[in-house]
Amino acid sequence: MIAPVRPIALGDIEEARARIAGTVLRTSLVKIDAGGAADIYLKLENLQPTNAYKIRGAANAVARLSDGERARGVWTISAGNAGQGVAYAARAFGVPCSVVAIETAPQTKLDRMRALGATIVPVSYETAWRAAESHGFEGMEGTFIHPFDNHDFIAGHGTMGLEIAEDLPGVRTVIAAIGGGGLITGVGSALKALSPDVKVVGAEPETAAPYAYSLDQGGPQRFPDWQASFVDGAGGKSVTERMWQRMQAVVDGTVTVTLDETRAAMRLIAEKSRTIAEGAGALALAAALTGKAGEGPIVCVVSGGNIDLGKFAELVAD
Fold first, then answer.
1. What digits encode the pLDDT tens for the residues 301-310?
2. CB 32 within 8 A of CB 42
3. Are 74 and 17 members of one domain?
4. End-to-end CA distance of the chain
5. What is the edge-to-edge ordering of all strands in the sheet holding 199-205?
6. Three-state SS at 256
7. Are 164 and 306 contained in the same domain?
8. Regarding beta strands 74-78 and 97-102, do their DSSP bridges make them parallel or antiparallel, or are they unpaired?
9. Nearest-CA neighbor of 307 among 51, 3, 120?
10. Residue 294: what pLDDT?
11. Which burial class, exposed, middle or buried, applies to 307 when counting CB atoms under 10 A from its CB (0-12, 13-18, 19+)?
12. Does residue 50 carry a pLDDT above 80?
């Protein structure tokens, strides 16, 4: 049975921080010179042990399972980063993990999931997204950990919001990529509890912007003419009713960016922070640089850096 949607309370997030402290890094907040734009800071979640923020939610969700639930093994659905996070956490508890993985995910992500001990079940993007919408996949056994529509997963992501509020008390705007919506719901839940005036803004690629489309339509929608792109870690096919409920309470809007703007942001992150951001990881900075996201100081969540190096070099080349 799927648990009903309920708000992510500040207490849930604070408890998650204590629970995952030995697994998750408190990542750096780095100010960059973006050429005259508003004060911009990067929250470098690409420096996590799995090079992506998903480890926060995964570690909390797996830790919250009962011994019996963990004994059954765990499984999730992923384009790569959630799968790595759940596999990493499952390995720490000594339990088996399977991942219904999008077959077109970067080889880097597939290889890392396998290296962490996960059994990979490759499927198409459409099949994976249907499984995420329905909370199930025929033939999978064990305890399902949803990659975004899971209260404990989202509470784990909220720990990032606590760090941002503590490290930059004057923050005015925080931008995070939207895929399924778990990242921005977690971060937004923490920030709205601590500093209600902080704007929480999403970022989506032009090829897959279901939250922007849903806002235009006044309710959760599937995105028409969805297209695959190198932004494989964000830009879902739809906004589910459950995630619509979650995001509406804590998200102030979203900015749609072009793929060229995303590539430019990937390059700028590399130049200014000397770290690698995958496409989804650069969406927040791309949104900030449009000037449409809000006033500074702005924190851009660099959500991940799992991308094949050859592909990264190709995308950021002049």
1. 999 999 999 9
2. yes
3. no
4. 51
5. 29-32, 40-44, 298-302, 173-177, 199-205, 253-257
6. strand
7. yes
8. parallel
9. 51
10. 84
11. buried
12. yes
CATH number at residue 156: 3.40.50.1100
Q: What is the span of the domain harbouring residue 202?
A: 10-52+151-316
Task: Give the number of domains in the chain.
Answer: 2
Structure tokens at 115: 């290296």
Q: How far is CA 266 from the centre of its chain?
A: 16
| Domain co-membership, 156 together with 188 | yes
H or E segment at 74? strand 74-78
How high does pLDDT run on average in the chain?
95
Burial of 252 (0-12, 13-18, 19+ CB in 10 A): middle
Same domain flag for 37 and 169: yes
Q: Which of 127, 144, 161 is the last residue of a domain?
A: 144
Asked whether residue 95 falls in the same domain as residue 158, the answer is no
**pLDDT per residue over 237-284, tens digit each?**
999 999 999 999 999 999 999 999 999 999 999 999 999 999 999 999
Confidence of residue 34 (pLDDT cuts 50, 70, 90): confident
Judging by DSSP bridges, how do beta strands 253-257 and 143-144 pair with one another? unpaired
Residues in the chain: 318
pLDDT attached to residue 295: 83
Alpha carbon distances (Å) from 93 to 5, 75, 272: 27, 14, 37
Q: How far apart are CA 314 and CA 318, in angstroms?
A: 9
pLDDT at 74 over 70: yes
